[in-house]
Write a structure and sequence with these properties.
24% strand, Sulfurtransferase-like selenium metabolism protein YedF, Hypothetical Protein Ychn, Chain: A, 2 domains, Se_metab_YedF, TusA-like, Translation Initiation Factor IF3, TusA-like_sf, 4-stranded mixed beta sheet
Length: 213
């Protein structure tokens, strides 16, 4: 049996690493994946369903789940094995599921720091807030970044991976283009896409709920 400890790793890493292990496993060999949340279990089940693999899971503790996938000699789905088919369907990208976005909920971030006071503490709090956002059962529909918040979605940001996690779950990450240009970040954007103040105003005025850390 191949054992993977994926606790503490953000989606889609558990799925990606399980997929790699399955590709190297012998037919009938089991791959056990230890994760720390139910969403990761669901994502691994989705992988198993797609590949037509035997799947089982067990909750071993408050934040410990053991998922077992049994490798097969040929893991293609039945639809891909149709006789005479020349081009197999592309495997879907590993994404976090289920869709937990709440329509009309928008997070607005205008600074690299959260709150007033010590800048280092403010940056630490902002990092903690964005990570905590990825762990919520209900996610925002979009995250709007402008002024100092534009730094968060750019190369070198400590928040970049968490923003990518939100993006993988369907959350729109939108960064003000004027702000990127002002701070010389025009070619540094690494998460989401560029937006403008008209769209920012439209999203904010049309939001049912605004979150301002």
């Amino acid at each position: 049996m191949i054992r993977l400890d994926e606790r503490g790793k953000q989606c889609p890493l558990p799925v990606i690493e399980a997929k790699k292990a399955l590709e190297t496993a012998s037919a009938g060999e089991q791959v056990e994946v230890i994760v720390d949340n139910e969403i990761a279990v669901q994502n691994l089940k989705k992988l198993g369903d797609y590949k037509g693999l035997a799947f089982s899971s067990q909750k071993k503790g408050e934040r410990e789940y053991a998922v077992v996938l049994t490798a097969a000699g040929n893991t293609k789905t039945a639809s891909q094995e149709t006789e005479g088919q020349q081009n197999s369907l592309p495997e879907p990208a590993a994404v976090c599921c289920p869709d937990g976005r709440r329509k009309g909920m928008v997070a607005v971030i205008s600074s690299r720091e959260m709150g007033q006071g010590d800048p280092a503490l403010g940056a630490l709090l902002m990092k903690g807030f964005i990570y905590a956002l990825t762990q919520q059962e209900v996610l925002p529909e979009a995250v709007l970044l402008y002024n100092g918040g534009a730094f968060l979605s750019c190369e070198g940001s400590d928040n970049l991976e968490d923003l990518k996690t939100l993006e993988a779950q369907g959350v729109e990450i939108l960064t003000c283009g004027t702000c990127l240009n002002h701070y010389g970040l025009g070619d540094k954007l690494r998460a989401g896409s560029v937006t403008n103040m008209y769209e920012i105003a439209e999203r904010m005025t049309g939001a049912a709920l605004l979150i301002r850390p």
